[in-house]
Write a sequence for this structure.
């Protein structure tokens, strides 16, 4: 697996530090609130597992499954809800836990859909932000790190469902996705 990686973009240690800081900020900002962490599978699952243990508040978690990517490296713009959130959102302070904000099309769709269910508040916490590729107006209040316009893998992020188990975030060798 490591042979397919061109460079390390964010090391294991840096990720740990970033997640810790985000968790601390959320703990401060959401004291006394009804926190519900909503995670979009599968990419953000590693981030959720780590950040929820850095949030020192009572909170709930729930999952969504959407599809916007096939096996290519570009978003299709078509967001399909495969699994919805089960917990009612009314009165909840929803934090969407995302792996990466890329075009923003996926999150834009999800946010608009969830807002109709009367949550008390809704914000985005994304580990990575790739602002160069934004195709619509989506604002994440909590951002871990900005990444350049390159396809990244690891720490939950996949290429063709692989590389999610890399403990760091790296860039694939072009020959891997040109295949
Ligand atoms: P968006 O709709 O373009 O913002 O893309 C949303 C989803 O695409 C993310 O949650 C990821 O699952 C996937 N994605 C976007 N960029 C990358 C990348 O560089 N590597 C791996 N997955 C990505
Ligand atoms: Mg993906």
């Amino acid at each position: 697996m490591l042979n397919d990686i061109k460079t390390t973009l964010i090391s294991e240690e840096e990720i740990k530090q970033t997640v810790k800081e985000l968790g601390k900020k959320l703990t401060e900002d959401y004291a006394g609130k009804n926190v519900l962490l909503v995670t979009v599978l599968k990419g953000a699952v590693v981030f959720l597992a780590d950040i929820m243990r850095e949030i020192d508040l009572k909170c709930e978690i729930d999952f969504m499954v959407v599809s916007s990517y096939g096996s290519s490296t570009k978003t299709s713009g078509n967001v399909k809800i495969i699994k919805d959130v089960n917990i009612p959102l009314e009165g909840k302070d929803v934090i969407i836990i995302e792996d990466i904000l890329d075009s923003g099309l996926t999150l834009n769709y999800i946010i608009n859909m969830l807002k109709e269910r009367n949550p008390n508040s809704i914000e985005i916490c994304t580990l990575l932000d790739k602002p160069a590729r934004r195709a619509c107006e989506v604002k994440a209040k909590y951002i871990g790190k900005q990444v350049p316009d390159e396809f990244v893998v690891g720490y939950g992020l996949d290429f063709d469902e692989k590389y999610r188990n890399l403990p760091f975030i790296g860039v694939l060798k072009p020959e891997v996705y040109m295949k």
